[in-house]
């Protein structure tokens, strides 16, 4: 059974997990469900197709913009009220899409909508870590990650089908309505973890809010090589997947002239592999340490990226490219939640602030890396995409090598019954 550190009844616990999951899901759906319509959006605004990956990268960068402030504010004023504020901001930004008439306004809204992702990372993730013990928190994040992965898995397909009857503006309006329902769920079920006496008798007191102290804390984190290396590794490991999400509409629908439905179907093998990886993580946690799990995950991770490079050098087969991405995605799913947990507890600073810095560093790497891959020609052909995406992902290996080499010789395996 799971051991909670905050006193919660079963109904509240289930409701809390569902509300957190729903908010995470719709923040990703706001990106993935609209991707099949992006060429329609650029055509409507008479804009260049380069805005397709740009809008996606702006969404990621939006997730970074406020994290430096959101995390410390949640350490001071509580996770609950900050997440409610973030959900409301996200819902309003989605609903506002029905009124815009220029691509510049569309991109600005994408930036604001991406800030909702920042609230998920800087507020909801620490709240989950504070409610559950280590092994359960890692399992729960992996399982919630599976639900969030339904967005890139089903989002393009769902978006393609809905676009048969609805406009892209109506899709955004629907996301705004879903945000309103999620806000109600968070208001009813989300507990406060700051300033509350936990079941073990401990209390996480609010951290005084001081811009000077925040600056000191962030500088201390930047001097923590283990923390910085792990955060950058998180971003680099996800970079090939992020580049695929941003460039797949151009590569498949424009370059290969596939239909929106075919584009959505080609996403299934990749994101299904991430889900399978998350399920394997849950099984491995029963008798392996987090560091050991990451070491095992590197095998499919590296083999998949090397397969991408080999495929690019020999052919431009879509089947082989997607197969390499799927193998890589399996390793990513096995390692992501475990690496996040290790990174979060690599410092004793307030977990909201630490989580914000993790998000800023990792998402900045993903956003900047995805933009760079697009600029240097990753969207010109499958061959070019495969080479640059694989090389970007492999850059994480030196950072992970240092992390695994400096790990304790015999770390305690997580106990699922703590």
Keywords:
418 residues; 17 helices
Can you offer a commentary on this structure?
Residues 16-404 form the Major facilitator superfamily (MFS) profile domain. This is MFS transporter. The longest helix has 31 residues, at 225-255. Helix 1 (10-32) packs across helix 7, helix 3 packs across helix 6 and helix 13 (290-314) runs antiparallel to helix 14. The protein is mainly α. The chain has a single domain (10-191, 219-405), classed as MFS general substrate transporter like domains (Growth Hormone, Chain: A, Up-down Bundle). It has 17 helices and no strands.
Task: Write the topology of this structure.
Blueprint: H1 10-32, H2 38-44, H3 51-65, H4 67-77, H5 79-95, H6 103-131, H7 134-148, H8 150-162, H9 168-189, H10 211-222, H11 225-255, H12 260-284, H13 290-314, H14 318-344, H15 351-375, H16 382-394, H17 397-405
Helix pairs in contact: 1-6, 1-7, 1-8, 1-9, 3-6, 3-11, 3-15, 4-5, 4-6, 4-15, 5-6, 5-9, 6-7, 6-15, 7-12, 7-14, 8-12, 11-14, 11-15, 11-16, 11-17, 12-14, 13-14, 13-16
In DSSP terms (H or I, runs of 4 or more residues), the helix count works out at 17
Strand content: under 5%
Distance between the termini: 8 Å
The number of E-state strands comes to 0
The percent of residues in helical segments reads over 70%
CATH class: Mainly Alpha
Tally of domains: 1
CATH architecture: Up-down Bundle
CATH homology group: MFS general substrate transporter like domains
Q: What structural class is derived from the secondary structure elements?
A: mainly alpha
What fold name stands as the CATH topology? Answer: Growth Hormone, Chain: A
Average pLDDT metric: 84
Largest sheet: none
Domain Major facilitator superfamily (MFS) profile: 16-404
Protein name: MFS transporter
Organism: Pseudomonas serboccidentalis
Subcellular location: Membrane
């Amino acid at each position: 059974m799971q051991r909670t550190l905050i006193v919660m009844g079963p109904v509240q616990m289930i409701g809390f997990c569902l509300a957190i999951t729903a908010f995470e899901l719709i923040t990703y759906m706001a990106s993935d469900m609209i991707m099949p319509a992006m060429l329609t959006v650029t055509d409507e605004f008479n804009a260049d197709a380069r805005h397709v990956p740009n809008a996606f990268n702006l969404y990621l960068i939006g997730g970074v913009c406020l994290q430096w402030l959101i995390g410390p504010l949640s350490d001071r004023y509580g996770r609950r009220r900050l997440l409610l504020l973030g959900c409301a901001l996200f819902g309003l930004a989605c609903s506002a899409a029905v009124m815009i008439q220029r691509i510049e306004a569309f991109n600005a809204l994408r930036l604001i909508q991406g800030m909702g992702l920042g609230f998920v990372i800087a507020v909801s993730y620490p709240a989950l870590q504070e409610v559950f013990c280590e092994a359960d928190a890692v399992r729960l994040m992996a399982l919630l990650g599976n639900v969030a992965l339904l967005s890139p898995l089903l989002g393009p397909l769902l978006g393609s089908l809905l676009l048969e009857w609805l406009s892209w503006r109506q899709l955004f309006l629907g996301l705004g309505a879903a945000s309103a329902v999620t806000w109600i769920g968070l208001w009813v079920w989300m507990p406060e973890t700051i300033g509350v006496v936990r079941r073990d008798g401990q209390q996480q007191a609010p951290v005084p809010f001081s811009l000077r102290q925040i600056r000191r804390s962030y500088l201390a984190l930047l001097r923590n090589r283990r923390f910085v290396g792990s955060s950058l590794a998180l971003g680099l490991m996800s970079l090939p997947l992020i580049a695929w999400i941003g460039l797949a509409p151009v590569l498949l629908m424009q370059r290969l002239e596939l239909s929106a439905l075919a584009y959505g179907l080609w996403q299934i093998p990749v994101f299904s592999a991430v889900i399978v990886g998350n399920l394997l993580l849950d099984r491995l946690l029963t008798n392996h340490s987090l560091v050991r799990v990451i070491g095992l995950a590197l095998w499919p991770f590296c083999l998949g990226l090397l397969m991408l490079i080999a495929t690019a050098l020999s052919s431009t087969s879509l089947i082989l490219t997607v197969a390499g991405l799927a193998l890589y995605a399996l390793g990513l799913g096995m390692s992501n939640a475990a690496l996040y947990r290790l990174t979060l507890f690599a410092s004793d600073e307030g977990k909201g602030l630490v989580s914000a810095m993790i998000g800023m560093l990792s998402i900045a790497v993903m956003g900047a890396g995805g933009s760079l891959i697009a600029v240097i020609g990753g969207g010109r052909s499958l061959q070019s995409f495969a080479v640059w995406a694989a090389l970007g992902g492999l850059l994480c290996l030196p950072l992970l090598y240092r992390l695994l080499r400096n790990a304790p010789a015999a770390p305690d395996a997580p106990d699922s019954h703590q």
